Amino acid sequence: MIDECARRTIVIDLCLAERDSLRRYVTSILGRDSHAVEDVVQETLLRAWQLAERIEWQDRPVRMWLFRVARNLVVDQHRREGRAVPVGLDAADFEQARESDPAEEVTDRRLVVDLLARLSPAHREVVARIHLLGHAGEEVAAVLGVPLGTVKSRAHNAVRQIRAELTRGDWAGAAA
């Protein structure tokens, strides 16, 4: 059996060996903001050091654990900053979308209205507030007087229903 100090040293060595791949992964999410990337990498390694005795490095690769922690840190950072842009997208992605044909925009709007009409009123309100108006989940929960978990559940289920209908092609009549 490995003593606590030796176990911590082994886990830390494994984590440090993954430092470059972790940095590349975080860069792929955040872009070339070297300060933000370094902050996430350092915070991830600090958490690995703090939790070294609890990381199951024999059953699964440490890399996956590090990547998950880093991704969660990036998501938390974006939520704290109140950014409406999802992780991994930048303004250039949205500029390309804006160069569409006005006729397509009308069709797309009609499609969105039709799909929203198929949702229950509770689900429709959550989707509209979060995805169309850009409100935070906590804010929506407070306005609606429901728990945050309910808001998250409604948003998830509504988006899943919309995706399913788009996949089935049930919306074909909406654009006509």
Can you put this structure into words, describing what you see?
One of its GO terms (biological process) is DNA-templated transcription initiation. Residues 110-161 form the RNA polymerase sigma factor 70 region 4 type domain. GO terms for molecular function: DNA binding; sigma factor activity. 17% of the residues are buried. This protein folds into two domains: 4-81, RNA polymerase sigma factor, region 2, helix turn helix motif (Rna Polymerase Sigma Factor, Chain: A, Orthogonal Bundle); 100-168, Arc Repressor Mutant, subunit A (Orthogonal Bundle), CATH 1.10.10. It is mainly α and 176 residues long. It is built from nine helices and no strands. Helices cover 73% and strands 0% of the residues.
Short description:
The protein has 176 residues and is mostly helical. 73% of the residues lie in helices and 0% in strands.
Features:
single chain; 176 residues; mainly alpha; Rna Polymerase Sigma Factor, Chain: A; Arc Repressor Mutant, subunit A; 2 domains; DNA binding; transcription regulation
Show the helix and strand layout.
Elements: H1 4-17, H2 19-30, H3 34-50, H4 62-81, H5 91-98, H6 102-117, H7 121-132, H8 137-144, H9 148-168
Helix pairs in contact: 2-3, 2-4, 3-4, 7-9, 8-9
Protein name: Sigma-70 family RNA polymerase sigma factor
Family: Belongs to the sigma-70 factor family. ECF subfamily.
Pfam family, one: Sigma70_r2
